[in-house]
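Input record (one chain):
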Amino acid sequence: MSNPIQLRLLWVLLFVATPGLAQDGILWKIESKTATSYLLGTIHSEDPRVLQLADTIKPQLDKSRSFTAELDLNLENSLTAAMAMLIQDGKELPGLIGRTRYQRCLTYMASYGVPEMMLRQLKPWAVMAQLSMPKPQTGLFLDRLLYDYAVEQQKPVYGLETYEEQIGVFEKLSLQQQIILLDETLENFPKLDQQLQQLIALYLKHDLSGLQRYSDSLMKSGSEELMHGFNQSLITDRNHRMVERMQARLQEGNAFIAVGALHLPGEQGILHLLTQRGYRITPVY
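The corresponding structure, as predicted from the sequence alone:
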């Protein structure tokens, strides 16, 4: 999961079995009759072991004509995302979610360095999203590192989506739905670091079957009906949109595309959708 508003219960779904494709690999070659490009599945982590993967991946990026991520990670887009997380109608978070729940949020968000004055202005989904991510140390994760590297090389950089589109997935949630997801995040928060370490270990080993089993076990505690609909909006619908929008880069050829790894697998995943369009997909690393 490659952006700052990814939900923990879906972020853990990094990989599942992909019909007709090899079960290992985070870097994939995409070939058509006329062009070759590369697709990387990323994980949102500052873990040095994950960042070291950039050294293995950079040779493909060096040779590429362009770099594409889920989002163009420029300052303007980051500010747009930050503003969208704020309550705009004069209300405050305690009144929306209740004092007891708010106090739990206050305790956990303090560990992220978020002052109460700011917390009071955040939408419930924004708190849920923050508590779904590892505590930031450097602000440098794999997508960001590769994006900055491409900019330094003066390559054209593109985003497959806008922040408004990504945030729209959360904005469509009712207040009740946001509270349900927030409660699940608060309940699981003490286990987050341990779960993330396990996911990183499996990611580094490219153990897709292990990731699937572990992710399935975590998902069992979720609100099934709500999570199914949310997964459709956050993952499946966006997969189709991103595949459509990456066509211009793939037709140019020699493109390097990086998206959150959970967007790659499954019958509705990007890898399978590309094969349906006639591309040959093979794992590189």
